[in-house]
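Supplementary Note 3. Input sequence used for the single-chain structure prediction.
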Amino acid sequence: CGVGCVGLAAMATDGLGLTMPGALVVVVLGAESTGKTTLVQQLAQALQERGHPTAVVPEVLREFCEAHGRTPQAHEQRDLALAQTQRIDAAKPMASVVLADTSALMTAVYSELIFQDATLYPLAVHAHRSVDLTLLTALDLPWVSDGIQRDGEHVRVPVDALLRRSLLDAGIGHSVVSGQGEVRLQSALGVVEHAL
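The predicted structure, written as discrete structure tokens, is reproduced below.
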């Protein structure tokens, strides 16, 4: 289903239709090379160790780039945004916490930045309203090349600014996660555990 479930293999495959009511949906947003994927993986492990069944929704854009050997074109952005939202929705009945490595809002930001197309914002904001907690990764980690998916260090500040503006304009609250290594994880974990 495109959802990586941490510690839920039996639940997801036993055919009993077990679901977790009222999952806390957490989305991690941020410019490239700000540790989103790493943070999601670390949070999933920490929450699982604390007894919270956790589902991880990977970034659809990363999968697209790896599968196609290129970044998406303008006409492919909407489908990527919809796929990210669908995967988040699909994970909700599978765990008490859903951790998503970005949302459709990230796709909307890149559509504006790269293609000067702001038409995805209404769809992305509407989808993001079903998110319970938004974590925004700070720009305090060094930029690291990650293949074709990365546009370069020069886009981090504009992407961060567009993300902050879009969250503010939509009235979507968020917590900024900063720090290195364990400090960053504990900062995020504290926010998530407070919401549980």
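The beta strands are 4-6, 24-29, 54-57, 97-101, 133-137, 175-177. Residues 77-91 form the longest helix (15 residues).
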